[in-house]
Amino acid sequence: MSPIDAVHSAPIADTVVTPRFKRRLFRHVKERVIESILLLLALVAVATTVAIVAILVHESAGFFEEVSLREFLTGTVWSPLFENPRYGVLPLVSGTVTVAGIALAVALPLGTITAIYLSEFAPHWVRETVKPILELLEAVPGVVFGYFALLLLTPLLQDTLLPGLPGFNMLAPALVIGVMIVPYVASVSEDAMRAVPMSMREGSYAMGATRLQTAVRVVTPAATSGIVAAYVLAASRAVGETMVVAIAAGLQPNFTFNPMEQAATITAYIVQVSQGDLPHGSLGYQSIFAVGLTLALMTLGFNIAGHWLRKRFREVY
Amino acid sequence: MVTDQMATNLARLNVPPSVATSQEMTGTLKAEAQNLNFYYGGFHALKNTNLPVYERKVTALIGPSGCGKSTFLRCFNRMHDLYPGNRYEGRIMLYPDQINLLDPTVDPIEVRMRISMVFQKPNPFPKSIYENVAYGLRVRGEHNRGRIAKNVEQALRSAALWDEVKDRLDEPAFNLSGGQQQRVCIARALATDPEILLFDEPTSALDPIATASIEQLISDLKERVTILIVTHNLQQAVRVSDYTAYMYLGELIEFGLTNNLFIKPEKKQTEDYLTGRFG
Ligand SMILES: Nc1ncnc2c1ncn2[C@@H]1O[C@H](COP(=O)(O)OP(=O)(O)O)[C@@H](O)[C@H]1O
Ligand SMILES: [Mg+2]
Q1: Which ipTM value was assigned to this complex?
Q2: What is the pTM of this model?
Q3: Which of A33, A252, B5, B243 has the fewest CB atoms found within 10 Å of its own CB?
Q4: Which of B79, B135, B197 to mutate to test the interface with A (most CBs of A within 10 A)?
């Protein structure tokens, strides 16, 4: 019991309990109950996370008893389902990095420009119309985008710019993922820019700056910490995006950074394998956890980098 | 007629009686508001206001909160153009050019390059001290590093900040104290050599020591630049200004030499406000 509780409850014991005190007591109990429920819910979330990490590590440990860390990290062939399985993760990493890299090259500039436009230039009604649409786009399931890449974008690219593009390739899904996360980058960045106080913009205008100068030289730097947060979240999503790549990139682990080839990413491999019926405890089954752990570590890396960048650019108004 | 109350006020404000008597309203006009009306959408915020602004003098705007002081000040650099629905009527003439600042053909950016502003709350940019002061030059397209460095140093000296920051020009301006930040903002406004400086309650967010240094600065600056200052602090108006205008409910009630206005206001309304505030 905290000292505050002691102070509250002590007089109740030896005074006449008036209705007012009763109400207070009731409110006190009610708050206690609500607090406990909230704490419990928070603990569920924490416990789930801990359990996930524990399972990842445990199953991966089994995997690394059979396959050396060296082979895993430096091998350039990933063929766990073959007669003679090989477990080099590099092809999955190269696929993931290529797809995510292209997606981010599309999403970050487009998202940032969209955010600058919406926050600093768009008339009120445009912003009020476009923002909900962007947020709606975020809710479109990945499968839809996957078939869009496979059935529309790849043929379109083949007919126009890239006649030699294979039917399964990394380029189309990467571009589609890029477009898919533009709304995400735009809406988080726009929130950050709108949080920049008007007084700072006025300071810039009062110096004779134009709208564009104010947006680029004052508002964007002032919103850096929020914009970086948007970038980190976007990077995590690009790396973690599963369905689009699984559908349109071909599911062939392929150690290449050439977006014109087919390949598989870490998450695409995970869905592929979990669809089959691998016996529980087999090496193939455990390999999912090993690559899953790899992915988790990559994402953790982004988040640490993002956290550091945000602290570095944190602005106080 | 100098009322007893007014005499007491003067004593409290340390105004020497010799200064407080007979001064001519002379000087060159730098700007003049003529029949200026201003509307926030449907709200008529300034009603037919007239005010001369004399060159290299400090003109103070006083009046109760919400009477339109900021609104009036922000007409001078067309700040109201930033928001939709605002409308000016009448003229603000700028001399010696004889142009009407409010004319729709006059580019507000042009106006703001000649008339700078310092705000109520220090609002430095998320940049280094140096880049804050260089900002106005950069947005004007100045690329010559030597010229920028020279102007930045001069502006920081004029803002009485150079000695405090000369070894830390690359540090973020946010690291400075409130008073120093406000002086960075003054230096930023000075770096482009404006003709008129607008101050909107520049010390209301500062402690007494920082306030005193800003007031000193304003008195020094009027050697070079015409100053229009809004203040809610009557002592401050007396200390720094040559002329004072009293506003009430969007109207400019009375304008005169600061000492005359404080000793012997012509309008009953002004006198009531001053006695109310001092008494
Ligand atoms: N953006 C605005 N829209 C509508 N009314 C405003 C706006 N800004 C100020 N006002 C109104 O205009 C009047 C004058 O305000 P202001 O110039 O800020 O007063 P002061 O600076 O003298 O305290 C007040 O009644 C205020 O409510
Ligand atoms: Mg004001």
Answers
A1: 0.88
A2: 0.80
A3: A33
A4: B135
Q: How many CB atoms lie within 10 A of CB B190?
A: 25
Question: Does residue A173 share a domain with residue A49?
Answer: no
CA nearest to B131 within chain A: A217
In a domain, A182, yes or no: yes
Residues of A in contact with B189 (CB under 8 A): 206-207
pLDDT of residue A263: 81
Q: Residue B172 carries which DSSP code?
A: B
- The confidence band for A274, taking pLDDT boundaries of 50, 70 and 90, is confident
Residues comprising chain B, all counted: 279
For chain A, the domain total comes to 2
Within this chain, do residues A208 and A227 fall inside the same structural domain, yes or no? yes
Residue of B nearest to A313 (CA): B126
The string of pLDDT tens digits covering residues B209-236 is 888 888 998 998 888 899 999 998 899 9
A116 and A195 inside one domain: yes
Share of chain A above pLDDT 70, in %: 92
Residue A257: predicted pLDDT: 86
Q: Is A69 exposed, middle or buried (0-12, 13-18, 19+ CB in 10 A)?
A: exposed
Average pLDDT, integer, range A219-239: 89
Kindly state whether residue A138 falls inside one of the protein's structural domains.
Answer: yes
Which range marks the domain in which residue A53 is found?
20-66
Amino acid at the residue A214 = T
**Domain annotation covers residue A10:** no
Neighbours of A101 (CB within 10 A): 17
**Secondary structure letter of residue A257 according to DSSP:** -
Q: Tokens 């420009």 belong to which residue? A: A113
- Burial of B138 by CB count in 10 Å (0-12 exposed, 13-18 middle, 19+ buried)? middle
Q: What is the mean pLDDT of chain A?
A: 84
Q: Which of A66, A96, A124 is the last residue of a domain?
A: A66
Query: In the predicted model, what is the mean pLDDT of residues B160-168?
Result: 89
What is the tens place of the pLDDT at every residue in A102-144?
A: 999 999 999 999 999 999 999 889 988 988 888 888 888 888 8
What does the alpha-carbon distance between residue A264 and residue A242 come to, in Å, rounded to a whole number? 10
CA distance B117 to A28: 53
CATH number at residue A94: 1.10.3720.10
Q: Please name the helix (run of DSSP H) or strand (run of DSSP E) that holds residue B230, with its range, or none.
A: strand B226-230
Do residues A96 and A48 both lie within one domain?
Answer: no
A24 and A97 both lie in a single domain: no
Query: Which pLDDT value is given to residue B54?
Result: 94
* Ligand 1 neighbourhood includes B174 CB (under 6 angstroms): no
Q: Which residues contact A248 (CB under 8 A, 6 or more apart)?
A: A146, A147, A149, A150, A153, A154, A168, A169, A172, A173, A176
Residues A171, A34 share a domain: no
Q: Whose CA is nearest to atom 1 of ligand 1?
A: B40
Least CB-CB distance to B188: which of A202, A205, A207? Answer: A207
Q: Are residues A176 and A303 in the same domain?
A: yes
